[in-house]
């Protein structure tokens, strides 16, 4: 159990560092933005902070044993990919907003990102349910 | 597949590459890759060309003025609001001398050329940058009587500038007026940037009005109308220690003070350029080395 918590804490720390990085990127970009800003870029740090650090903090506190489940790695890869896609989509939208333009491809970042997160959570949910049934 | 996805770093590596490719492609597609959609049909009017040559040969031209029998232009430089402002007073005898042109004579996304290059290819006497329509997917684009785009912008500000066949300016909201009804009423040009600065003789912006999320003073380009075939064009330098730039309200006040009944904000920032008789009048801050930015289109006076 101790090693499981340690592994999840490592993920939390990575997400916290990514959140700080997102804030720094926004600040640095703002220097060259001639006073123009974009909510998408300003708030993009919330994806790794809430979707990443907070989410894994909850897992670490309440269900750290799921890391032992056979499908955990699949869930982990898909969920993290979703958060990464949404964060980059938000960064991209911020860049385009600040430049005063848009792109028809932007929506795919949100669809793919949301899809990965949903798929990851569904896989994990199914694993948890099945595991409970085995124990019952 | 499951086994493949389960590998700790293989998936992360492959996905990172895919995400980087998608991100880069979207940026390139938006900002760099040119997509031409329609070429402008060349209309050569021999009679006009003859008139042009005759008129130009008798023109009185100085560094800041031009006058022939059809077109009169005077440009003054004003220091105000800690900014350098270039004001052109233009009178023409016919609406046909107020024109627009597209970069490389082509309508499309990321089809660009500098204002001065486009102006020179059109033998323009006076030109300013237009609305940079090619940087966006929405907004009306009608040029010299031809409709290139009739999709409404989804943004809060979707005001367009209409120049009718008599040369009169008006500001409309794209969500309230269709392109077809503009054509039916004789629109000749429609530019989509905005917002409208002066409408029906009244200032139409406030101190909190801005383009997009920008809240600072900027280089600006705008055009207004005093009376029939009498126009004011204002370009301001900005984003430098010498010239801060104007807010939209300050810009609107300048037009109002000069008696404009209609005025409209065009693409500004690094795009702002005023070209006159082969020279760039202002100090554009848009190119890689701080010079002229390449834009989609211009508004010009000439033959």
Give me a quick take on this structure.
Chain A is mainly α and 136 residues long.
Alpha-carbon distance between the two ends of chain B? 67 Å
- Taken together, the total number of domains of chain B comes to 2
Globally, the shape of chain B reads globular
Largest sheet of chain A: none
Describe the structure.
The complex is a heterodimer of chains A (136) and B (303). Chain A is mainly α and 136 residues long. Chain A is built from five helices and no strands. The model of chain A has no long low-confidence stretch (mean pLDDT 90). Chain B folds into two domains: 1-33; 39-301, no CATH class. Chain B has six helices and 23 strands. Helices cover 20% and strands 35% of the residues of chain B. The N and C termini of chain B lie far apart (67 Å). In chain B, a hairpin with a 2-residue loop joins strand 15 (196-199) and strand 16. Chain B is an alpha+beta fold. The mean pLDDT of chain B is 90. Classes of the chains: A mainly alpha (136), B alpha+beta (303). Chains A and B meet through helix 4 and helix 5 of A and helix 1 and helix 2 of B.
Index terms:
heterodimer; A: 136 residues; mainly alpha; 5 helices; 0% strand; elongated; B: 303 residues; alpha+beta; 2 domains; nine-stranded antiparallel sheet; five-stranded antiparallel sheet; 6 helices; 23 strands; globular
Chart the SSEs and their pairings.
The complex is a heterodimer of chains A (136) and B (303).
Chain A: H1 2-31, H2 39-42, H3 46-62, H4 72-99, H5 106-135
Chain B: H1 2-6, H2 10-31, E1 35-39, H3 46-57, E2 60-61, E3 65-67, E4 71-80, E5 83-92, E6 98-102, E7 106-109, E8 113-114, H4 115-121, E9 126-129, E10 141-143, E11 146-149, E12 159-164, E13 169-173, H5 179-184, E14 187-191, E15 196-199, E16 202-203, E17 220-227, E18 230-236, H6 248-257, E19 262-265, E20 274-276, E21 279-280, E22 294-295, E23 297-301
């Amino acid at each position: 159990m101790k090693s499981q918590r340690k592994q999840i804490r490592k993920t939390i720390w990575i997400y916290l560092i990514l959140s700080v990085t997102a804030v720094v990127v926004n600040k640095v970009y703002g220097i060259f933005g001639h006073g123009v800003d974009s909510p998408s870029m300003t708030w993009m740090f919330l994806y790794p902070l809430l979707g990443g650090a907070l989410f894994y903090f909850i897992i670490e506190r309440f269900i750290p044993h799921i890391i032992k489940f056979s499908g955990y790695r699949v869930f982990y890869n898909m969920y993290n990919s979703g958060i990464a896609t949404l964060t980059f989509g938000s960064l991209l939208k911020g860049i385009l907003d600040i430049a005063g333009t848009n792109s028809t491809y932007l929506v795919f970042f949100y669809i793919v990102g949301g899809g990965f997160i949903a798929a990851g959570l569904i896989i994990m949910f199914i694993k948890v349910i099945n595991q409970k049934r085995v124990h019952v | 597949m499951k086994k493949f996805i389960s590998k700790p770093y293989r998936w992360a590596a492959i996905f990172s590459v895919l995400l980087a490719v998608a991100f880069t492609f979207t940026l390139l597609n938006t900002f760099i890759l040119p997509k031409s959609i329609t070429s402008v049909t060349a209309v050569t009017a021999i009679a006009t060309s003859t008139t042009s040559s005759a008129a130009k040969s008798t023109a009185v031209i100085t560094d800041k003025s031009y006058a022939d029998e059809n077109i009169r232009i005077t440009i003054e430089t004003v220091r105000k609001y800690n900014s350098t402002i270039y004001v052109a007073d233009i009178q023409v005898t016919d609406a046909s001398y107020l024109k627009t042109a597209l970069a490389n004579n082509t309508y499309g996304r990321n089809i660009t050329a500098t204002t001065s290059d486009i102006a020179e290819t059109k033998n323009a006497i006076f030109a300013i940058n237009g609305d940079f329509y090619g940087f966006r997917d929405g907004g009306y684009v009608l040029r010299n009587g031809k409709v290139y785009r009739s999709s409404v912008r989804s943004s809060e500000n979707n005001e367009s500038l209409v120049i009718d066949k008599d040369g009169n300016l008006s500001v409309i909201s794209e969500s309230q007026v269709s392109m077809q009804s503009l054509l039916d009423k004789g629109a000749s040009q429609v530019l989509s940037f905005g917002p409208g600065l002066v409408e029906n003789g009244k200032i139409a912006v406030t101190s909190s009005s801005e383009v997009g999320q920008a809240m600072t003073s900027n280089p600006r380009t705008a055009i207004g109308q005093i009376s029939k075939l009498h126009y004011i064009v204002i370009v301001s330098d900005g984003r430098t220690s010498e010239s801060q730039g104007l807010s939209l309200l300050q810009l609107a006040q300048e037009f109002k003070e000069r008696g404009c009944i209609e005025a409209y904000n065009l693409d500004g920032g690094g795009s702002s350029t005023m070209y006159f008789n082969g020279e760039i009048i202002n100090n554009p801050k848009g190119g890689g080395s701080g010079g002229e930015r390449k834009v989609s289109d211009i508004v010009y006076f000439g033959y």
